[in-house]
Amino acid sequence: MPVPAHPHYLQLTLANGLRVSLRHAPRLKRCAAALRVAAGSHDAPLAWPGLAHFLEHLLFLGTEAFPAPNGLMAYVQRHGGQVNASTRERTTDFFFEVPTPVFGDALQRLGDMLAHPRLAMDEQLREREVLQAEFVAWSQDAEAQLQVAILEGLATGHPLRGFHAGNRDSLPVPQEDFQQGLRGFYQDFYQAGQMTLSLAGPQSLEELQALAQCFADSLPSGHLRPQQAPPALMDGDQHRYQHLDKQHLHHLIACNAPREALEFLCTWLNAEAAGGLLAELKSREWASALHAKVLYQFAGQALLDIEFNLGPKGSQQAPAIGALLNDWLGFFAHSDWTALREEYALLVDRQRQVRGALALARQDSEHLEAQLSEPHCQALKAMLNTLQPTPAQQTWQLPPSNPFLQRPPQEQRPGLIRGQTSAHRGLRTFAQDRSRGRRELPGLSFSQALPADSDEGALYLRWQLDSPAQGLGNSLQTLRTNARQAGVELSFEAVGNDWLLKMSGLHEPMPAIVEQLARDLTRPAANLWHNALVSPAPQMAIRELLKVLPTCFADTANGNALPDRWATARWQGLGIGLPAACEMAIKNAAARLPGHCTDSEHKALSINGQHRWQTVTTDGDEAALLLFCPAPSQSLADEADWRLLAHLAQVPFYQRLRVELQVGYAVFSGIRQVNGQTGLLFGVQSPDVALAGLLEHIQAFLTQLPALIKGNDDLGNTTLAQQFSPQTLPNAQAAELLWQAHLAGHGADYLEQLQQLIQARNRQNLVDAAQQLKQAAGGWQCLANGAAVGDYWQQ
């Protein structure tokens, strides 16, 4: 029976046992599904670690009805969506997001792959090699090994201490008992009673329910099986310990508070405001950052991880840092949370207003309560009192209210200032005197390409400096946190001498955020440029290459490190999807930004005809390579050709290198826009094949592209063109496209023109484009973790 809920939200259990969550959100432009199976790595037979993860992989290899080239992953990617899966300790999740018209077809493919997997022996043997490659990468990854080390303080018998990823040794595929275990696990857990389906989209609840019922009809009926409760997280009466690793200190706490209560605690523990724990640690130079999160939760057990990035004097202060943490927890436990609970409710509501379809569906699959209830608070108080029952000795303060969560004051009528009436309208006001001296902002423009009829918008601000911009955003972390809580995602990107700031989300708080940004950026230079953050831990090789890619097309000329770098800085900005009142407020706030607002034309770096190679140092022994191929020109016709090539190549490239040749486990291709330049990007990381082999496989694929185009009945013009409609593009994606178009010199009708050109391209256009691609007409930029292969590359 349906469970009473919000008018736009419904929970029910269908006849075959499938639990369903439905969310109708009219503002959404796409639909999403999240399917959660109540079984994960810790539920697999002990004899075969990694079996649950292995099964998740096998389910994506296609069925009789939908072979892999037409299965869920390929179908979603072909329609410009996103798809993935995740095997956790006690759950396995499958999720995707697609345009509304194809949602039903994608759901059908998800249901079919869950209900009718082939589990063929040859496919199992091939996929096991993929897990083996992932295992090798995992064993070399510093972050992954740190995670293993952090958990060594847990009870020996707890499954969190075990290995569950799977590899060649733990998955004896040919053995009959393994096959029985695999099929037994599948039959026990991959049935409707063990699953929860969450759908989110602009459709009505009735339409979503009909889609859920169709999905349920493909699954076998069943009942929810109880999952075995794990042993205690820690031995005896122990409930906490510390782990020190170089510049990181982790404080682990075992507790039994509800997830909602722990998220509330983490929000305020992570606060950077004066009077808080992090501010005190910074003042003593013991820590530069703090991040508290729930690492694990199941069956009344929870593990809280409080991570400190240690400062210059922190490595010898682990006990003292633990004592300060205890003292703050005591302060928090004895504080009045009334104001914090009100602020937290505003925060949660703002987050729900800006979440996309996929984020909403995944959140609903967690089945967490939207508000922090009184029982949650009591449970958190009880937990904190067991950790630190006495009041604090240090003088602490609760964080102040987030200024961006409050609605701005109502604007005065034009021409009047506070205290004036209409009788004074003929007199010049102080406000008008100030405005006469306000500088013009020729470099700040506002695009009309998106309708300003929603609550969301975007703003891009780009500074050009005379010296490297690295570290400029280090002093803006508090601003970033407050903006995110208010529904605005704020990000910074330093590439060479350029510094780009993006904000997207609810437009209401944006003017106030720009005002605060202006204040923060004009602080003394020491706070801005020398407050360096701890370097992030190295990532897997292919991700390190992706981080470096933008610098290949950036201005990196080294100027003098001036005491005031803003003196010669130039900046430009673009607002997208903002109503007129918001535009005016942003203009007023932006007038205070440092630097000179100039309307200078952006010139993209051209590498036409060149073969450029850049070697990047990465951790580990695996070969990793990116090949970025810019379009021959900035014309929209070339961009349309390149996007269609990417559309046609994405699935065959993955199928050829990842599935058929087993070259590597990190294999991808697609369009990437870098600093206004559109290009095709190919990426591979392999534990077995050297760089020369990886490049050879990519070049062989490019050689086969013309034949692939000629043999394809449907070039995908209509499918791809529809993905660039403002009516179906999520706001953040549309804004990014329009910003890149702005850098490339295209007008406000960019999306419309691009759609028309994609629709009009023919087979010969694409064959010619494929030849240009192979001949490096627009150039080839290769990034790899080794020396150049061949003598035709420029270093």
Automatic annotation (TrEMBL):
Q: Where is the Coenzyme PQQ synthesis protein F-like C-terminal lobe domain?
A: 644-713
Q: Name one Pfam family in it.
A: Peptidase_M16
**Which residues are in the Coenzyme PQQ synthesis protein F C-terminal lobe domain?**
456-574
Its keywords, alphabetically, are:
Hydrolase, Metal-binding, Metalloprotease, PQQ biosynthesis, Protease, Zinc
Looking up PROSITE patterns in the UniProt record yields: INSULINASE
Decide whether keyword Protease is in the record.
yes
Single GO term (MF):
hydrolase activity
Q: In which pathway does it act?
A: Cofactor biosynthesis; pyrroloquinoline quinone biosynthesis
What does the record give as the function of this protein?
Required for coenzyme pyrroloquinoline quinone (PQQ) biosynthesis. It is thought that this protein is a protease that cleaves peptides bond in a small peptide (gene pqqA), providing the glutamate and tyrosine residues which are necessary for the synthesis of PQQ.
Protein family (similarity comment): Belongs to the peptidase M16 family.
This chain belongs to which protein, by name? Answer: Coenzyme PQQ synthesis protein F
What lineage, starting at the top, does this entry show? Bacteria, Pseudomonadati, Pseudomonadota, Gammaproteobacteria, Pseudomonadales
